[in-house]
Amino acid sequence: MLIAAIVALGVGTYSMRLGGVLLGERLKLSDTLQRLLPMAAAALLAALAGTATLMAGTEFAGLARPAGVLVGGILAWRRAPFVVVVLAAAATAALLRLAGVP
């Protein structure tokens, strides 16, 4: 069952990408829609990051995870190397959990 789901998702992804290439010239989008599409993708990614940060399943993830993400976000904003961002975020969350913060 898992293999079938993976294959179905792979075929669906490939067909959507192929459809974009084949229909790209035929489908004319308005200028307004062409300006809004990149912002919609950014909003979708921000919503996904927000829910992954704040939720663990159906419950609140606690304060350690958002604090780690905040530290990582600040370091990324300050243009720290990616490895430093990831390690600092993980260390922040781990140390807070070690200190008893949920």
Automatic annotation (TrEMBL):
Membrane-crossing residues? Answer: 6-24, 36-56, 76-96
Which superkingdom does the taxonomy of this entry point to? Bacteria
Which keywords does the record carry? Membrane, Transmembrane, Transmembrane helix
Q: Name one Pfam family in it.
A: AzlD
Q: Which InterPro entries match?
A: Brnchd-chn_aa_trnsp_AzlD
Q: What's the name of the protein? A: Branched-chain amino acid transporter
Species per Swiss-Prot/TrEMBL record: Paractinoplanes rishiriensis
